[in-house]
Design brief:
3 helices; 81% helix; elongated
Length: 73
């Protein structure tokens, strides 16, 4: 997520020609977009980060369900 926010900030700063970002080449922005694409499409899946987050959400739901079933009685 921080990478996406960085890209959005770079686009905004470059477009509105703020400070030194006015002289920044658009290739830096495109390079950041390519890096984000590679990260989210390949590296994150290779490291299993996408599955880990889904697993953590399922585990939290399971714990909440168990907690609710024992507190109702």
């Amino acid at each position: 997520m921080p990478l996406i926010l960085l890209i959005a900030a770079l686009i905004g700063l470059k477009y509105f020609e703020v400070w030194r970002f006015a002289e920044l080449s658009w290739w830096w922005v495109v390079g950041a977009m390519v890096a984000a694409f590679i990260w989210f499409e390949f590296i994150e899946k290779m490291l299993g980060l996408d599955k880990r987050q889904a697993h953590n959400e399922d585990e939290k739901r399971r714990k909440d369900r168990v907690k609710n079933s024992f507190t109702k009685k």
